[in-house]
Design brief:
By secondary structure, this protein is α/β, with parallel strands linked by helices. The chain has an 8-stranded mixed β-barrel with strand order 18-19-21-22-23-24-25-26, surrounded by 5 helices. Strands 2-1-3-4-5 form a 5-stranded parallel beta sheet. Strands 7-6-10-9-8 form a 5-stranded antiparallel beta sheet. Helix 4 (64-73) runs parallel beside helix 5 (90-100), helix 19 (543-563) runs parallel beside helix 21 (585-596) and helix 21 runs parallel beside helix 23.
């Protein structure tokens, strides 16, 4: 067997050193004193050097007798003890430590490897058993564990000492009871009551004496009190923790925080008996009881119960309570052969309001709207908040659709007036879906699902309205699900293709850029435009995968342009809000540019104003990082969003794209369009390029040329074409 020193040199390698060091770094009490007991001098010395390297203070003993002498003279926190030693062995040392030094913990380190020796050591009080040879990091780990346990035990002892002192200080107060303590005679009349009755009920003790207990008990609890208040039983059969209500005196108690004529008590009572003179029979002579005021606890339970079943922001029922009431209403409707309506209400544009004015304003809006909605309802109706801006409404006992329409109309009437939020007037509208029982569903789940489906149908038809569920909506829903699955297959099956529409310099007619436009070669429906699938992609978050595919394809095409000598053409790519919000958005774009060898200034990201408003600060930060690598940024559809011009200064913008709706109003070069004129003038002041979208006739082109507009894009200048046709057009245009 290797010597201890040789073994330490070979086992204490860099890997163990690293793991051991991590354990030591977490150790707090390096001031602990450790005694190493072993008859092998080299072993004790090497262990001591190891412990010193980790900040431990240690001592050594060459045998059991020397160890006991050291223990008698020094405070030892932990002993590393060998078992087989001449003279006094390890077992004898452990017995002496257990009897005279209970504060010293022992870890046995022994070459004795039998199960019996380890078991015997643990029975004699050893905290752990480590067989030789051992790994240093294992030793340090055990030491840390034992010393940590010591610290915990010391902390527990200190806590117990403080608790005991605290208990002694407050025992007098507890024994002088904050509860009502009373005694009744054998007829149930008060024979004694302490002063606490004044603080809780407003009576002086002398006003209570001689009264029957029933005069203080709430009339609804008299039956319960009859079996508890004047209890005749004793022992375990006596009354324990019985809740009753006691009436307060008919005078105001201003120090009570709530207006109540009663308090809730928890009663413990037992019969009192005295031994009769003749025989061993005992005679009942009254009842002893303690009544504890639990009004605060009951109020807390009521609050917790309220919070469990209510939305804390609006104080409306939550989803759980709504579903419970809906189940009950369905059962009643079945028995009474009546109808009920379930409405699913979703606030339109709430995220826009929340992002624009802040979450605090959003919360205030929800509270105000909840208050208005409540005024439209009957007492039997239930309005619940089931999501951020989603509400469910239960309208039981209706005669038909007309009753549901009446409630929906009331809701829209209530929301006609704006809500005032931090100096802003906010107009609120809802998309409402309605499902009726029993024709639209016989169960809670089906009714809620169908109302939800009808609500989404309302949103798809312009929002701010209501629709009743109909069977054909299931088909539309299934179509959406089918379309979503088709999009997934399109991504996996290479069914998407980028088309390219040219952007021209208005003054020279030179093609200076291209916009990448997505097309879908649907296997059944043919070529689909983005309007046919992008809205659903955004709703299902598939837009992230689509956007990544578009960026990949765009960079791949840019590399082909560069190889063909088309070095000055900029490619514009549309970016969605979901893409911009992705954590790895910036790194993903930079990685693609590097992989395809594309300079950053050849790529222009087109972002709408609405996308920017999702999280302006993060958007600005990400776009600035990209701009630092040369990537260009354009605001698409400028003028139709929020038009908050302040963000133009904070963004690293290169281009503003005038929305096609403004260009379409121009018929000839003689027309006047103040919005287009203002945008071009503003861009010129900010040193930004302008691209006018939707140019479809020569009059519009002449108008833009007269205003010195930079660039234009539209069917007059070129239709979107395939990548191959675009490359050919660029080559021909260059020559």
């Amino acid at each position: 067997m290797k010597s201890a020193i040789n073994w330490l040199e070979t086992s204490y390698g860099p890997e163990n050193e690293q793991s051991t060091q991590r354990a030591v770094d977490n150790m707090e009490a390096t001031a602990s004193t450790i005694l190493v007991v072993d008859d092998d001098v080299r072993m004790t010395q090497s262990v001591r050097e190891l412990l010193a390297a980790y900040g431990y203070s240690s001592m050594t003993a060459g045998g059991g007798e020397e160890a006991l002498r050291v223990l008698a003279e020094h405070d030892i926190d932990l002993m590393l003890l060998d078992l087989n030693m001449p003279g006094v062995d390890g077992y004898q040392v452990m017995r002496q430590v257990a009897e005279h030094h209970p504060g010293t913990d022992i870890v046995v380190i022994s070459g004795e490897t039998t199960f019996e020796s380890a078991t015997e050591a643990l029975r004699n009080g050893a905290q752990d058993f480590l067989r030789k040879p051992y790994a240093p990091d294992r030793l340090i780990q055990i030491l840390n564990g034992v010393l940590h346990k010591q610290r915990l035990e010391q902390n527990i002892r200190e806590v117990n000492q403080r608790l005991e002192a605290s208990e002694n200080r407050y025992r007098f107060i507890v024994n002088n009871s904050p509860d009502i303590i009373y005694m009744l005679d054998d007829e149930g009349r008060f024979a004694f009551v302490n002063d606490r009755v004044t603080g809780l009920l407003g009576y002086k003790p002398e006003e209570i004496l001689g009264k029957h207990y029933s005069e203080l008990v709430h009339k609804e609890d008299l039956e319960k009190a009859r079996y508890a208040f004047d209890e005749r039983r004793t022992g375990v059969r006596a009354s324990h923790d019985i809740e009753l209500r006691l009436l307060c005196k008919d005078t105001s108690l201003p120090y009570r925080y709530f207006e109540s004529r009663s308090i809730t008590i928890e009663l413990n009572a037992m019969g009192m008996y005295q031994k009769k003179h003749s025989g061993d029979d005992k005679g009942f002579f009254g009842t002893y009881g303690v009544a504890r005021d639990i009004s605060e606890r009951k109020r807390a339970e009521e609050i917790i119960n309220f919070q469990l079943y209510h939305d804390l922001l609006t104080n409306l029922p939550n989803r759980a309570l709504f579903r419970d009431r809906l189940n009950l209403a369905i059962s009643q409707a079945r028995r009474q052969d009546s109808q009920l309506a379930v409405m699913f209400l979703d606030m339109d544009r709430f995220k826009v309001i929340n992002d624009s004015l802040g979450h605090l304003a959003g919360d205030q809006l929800l509270q105000a709207v909840a208050g208005r909605l409540t005024t439209c309802l009957r007492d039997s109706d239930t309005l619940a908040r089931v999501g951020g801006d989603e509400f469910n409404l239960l309208i039981p006992d209706i005669t038909g659709r007309e009753d549901a329409v009446m409630i929906a109309t009331k809701i829209f009437d209530q929301l006609k007036q704006p809500v005032q939020l931090e100096g802003h007037e906010v107009f609120v509208s809802f998309s409402i879906g309605i499902a009726l029982f029993p024709q639209d569903g016989a169960s809670m789940e089906v009714l809620i699902k169908n109302a939800d489906m009808a609500m989404y149908h309302t949103k798809s038809h312009g929002k701010n309205g209501y629709e009743f569920f109909s069977d054909n909506m299931k088909g539309l829903f299934q179509q959406q699900l089918s379309m979503e699955n088709s999009i997934r297959r399109a991504l996996d099956g290479n069914q998407f293709e980028l088309f390219y529409q040219p952007q021209m310099e208005v003054s020279s007619g030179r093609i200076c850029g291209m916009e990448a436009l997505l097309r879908w070669h649907h296997p059944e429906r043919g070529l689909l435009l983005p309007d046919d699938f992008i809205p659903l992609s955004e709703e299902s978050q598939l837009i992230i995968r689509i956007g990544n595919w578009v960026l990949e394809a765009a960079c791949r095409e840019l590399r082909k342009w560069i190889k063909a000598g088309l070095d000055d053409i900029i490619l514009a790519v549309n970016i969605s809000a979901a893409q911009l919000e992705q954590q790895g958005f910036v790194d993903g774009i930079l990685e693609k540019l590097k992989r395809y060898g594309v300079p950053g200034n050849r790529l222009e990201l087109e972002i709408t104003e609405n996308v920017l408003m999702h999280d302006m600060d993060k958007a600005v930060s990400k776009l600035r990082k990209l701009a630092a690598h040369g990537v260009r940024v354009a605001v698409d559809d400028f003028g139709v969003g929020y038009s908050s011009l302040g963000y133009l200064k904070s963004l690293p913008l290169n281009t503003l794209k005038i929305d096609r709706s403004f260009i379409s109003e121009i018929r000839s070069s003689q027309d006047r369009n103040s919005i287009v004129t203002a945008i071009i003038a503003m861009a010129r002041e900010l040193n930004l390029e302008i691209v006018a979208e939707g140019v479809e006739n020569q009059g519009q082109m002449d108008y833009l040329r007269a205003l010195n507009c930079c660039k234009a894009q539209g069917y007059l200048l070129g239709y979107p074409v395939s990548a191959k046709e675009a490359r050919q057009a660029l080559k021909e245009h260059k020559h």
